[in-house]
Amino acid sequence: MTSSTPSDPHPGDGHAPVEGHGGSHATAVAAAHGVRTMFTLSGAHVFPMYDAAAKEDHGVALLDVRHEQTAAFAAEATGKLTRSPGLAVLTAGPGVTNGVSAVTQAHFSGAPMVVLGGRAPANRWGSGALQEFDHVPLLAPITVSAETATGPDDIAGATHRAFRAARTAHRGPAFLDVHMDHFFDQSTSVRPGPDDDGAAGPDREPDTDAIERIAGMLASAERPVLVLGSDVWADFADEAALRCVEALGLPAIPNGMGRGIVPAGHPLLVTKARGMAFSRADLVVVVGTPLDFRLGYGGFGGKDGAEPAAVVHIQDSDGQLSRHANPAVATAGDLARVLDELTAAVQRQSTRPDWSEWAGALREKADATHAADLELLGAAADPIHPARIYGELLPRLADDAVVIGDGGDFVSFAGKFVEPSRPGNWLDPGPFGCLGAGLGAAIAARIARPSSQVVLLLGDGAAGFSLIDVDTLVRHNLPVVMVMGNNSAWALEKGPMQMIYGYDVIADLAPRTRYDEVVRALGGAGEMVTDPAQIGPALDRAFASGVPYLVNVVTDVEAGYPRATFGV
Length: 568
Fold this sequence. Notes:
Elements: E1 18-21, H1 22-32, E2 37-40, H2 47-55, E3 61-64, H3 68-82, E4 86-90, H4 94-97, H5 100-109, E5 113-119, H6 136-139, E6 145-148, H7 155-167, E7 173-179, H8 180-184, E8 186-189, H9 208-220, E9 224-228, H10 230-234, H11 238-248, E10 252-254, H12 274-280, E11 283-287, E12 310-315, E13 329-332, H13 335-347, H14 356-377, H15 386-393, E14 402-406, H16 409-417, E15 426-427, H17 438-448, E16 454-459, H18 460-466, H19 470-475, E17 481-486, H20 491-501, H21 515-521, E18 525-529, H22 535-545, E19 549-554
Parallel strand pairs: 2-3, 2-4, 4-5, 5-7, 6-7, 9-10, 9-11, 11-12, 12-13, 14-15, 14-16, 16-17, 17-19, 18-19
Antiparallel strand pairs: 1-8
Helix pairs in contact: 1-2, 1-7, 3-5, 3-17, 9-13, 11-13
């Protein structure tokens, strides 16, 4: 038995002790932390969790999937969408290891989630019981906490510690496993709730000196840009961010789940002028996202003989600040308070900056890019250009639509063309780039946003990881519109390999595979489209169907996404 997190000495003081088995205690604590769905795949090591969800009044529904990765991806997406930890319950050994990629994605995305794993019985530990494996050393490097409950009377407290760790900035996945015999054992335990912290959280007071320095830099900047990342949404700072943009007239480029904070059509949303903004900026303020390959590793400006731009990095916790980019100012704190205080500090400057000319130039460039995009969005090419799919999809998306990307080139086009109208409505693989997350995310989105459109954008390669979980959508009556760009290739690898070597190998898939027939065989509906004029009508049928529906669009493999970086 291994533990990387110390036990609370008196968890849940003030609560009355409750009699129950270990699954009852764990489920009750998870419910107190806001869990309403337990994503799982049946396994005997965790049967007591199912017993508690089925027979006790905790308000937690069971949702079983066809692969543990889907359960974990659903928990991760729940954390992203609701900003409260999702829960995946995985059986011992391969059940837990099947969830590792999703846990790692949550680690890189800062998504709050708890994985509660089964573990071979303590009374047989070391003798070779079925699926006996010490999960904690494997999970510890990719989680905010990882431990094994010490006994039946520790399960409630350990579950509480996991949820508390998952939701504390910087958020992320937490792991707990419980020996099978301890899960079945009866005990009398207190059941902590979310307000029973037991320990002080990290200091998240804004650094007023750093904020004043940043305000001074903004006051003297001529061409600033504000980047808003996923943690702005996760830290409940989306409204403060929009106040900052509008009060200061600051051009903004969101990424990840920051998309939609500055809504589609806003004059200060300059994502479509990204190249111009980043190459000509003299100051880039990056909030709530790492300075990774998506942001040129923190290098901006310096084009055509100009000086490189100064960089400011603002994060929700010290551990997320850049260690490689040497920003001029790096500070961490509660992002809503940081942004509000920064807005006020700039407004107090003796000389109020006026960036209207710079913002206007970026708006002009963004509008020109959009005008150029319209030609691609309406392309009548045969084979179909993937952009035409978005030309048909965009006018059919409601303002509250949840759009999920699972793929390479096809989803890159989505990033170029889809501008959400609201925050918290865009899900993509994030910096870890993990394929196969889409079906789990779609399951989570349909539950978290029951009245919204849920649209899953699938590459044909990515679909192979998880399409079997259409069965889960069907069994649990979760209608989702799936739109596939089917170019019969691993296009994200095919193009670069041709560029490097002049040829490609193992980058092709079977042409025109009828993935829509797979969906129909699993109980859903769908169709294949080869004529660009039929994409729109097929989407209309999908949205009207009320069932899981796949629009399988055969696209041109030669119409690759014109990327500037391959992430290395």
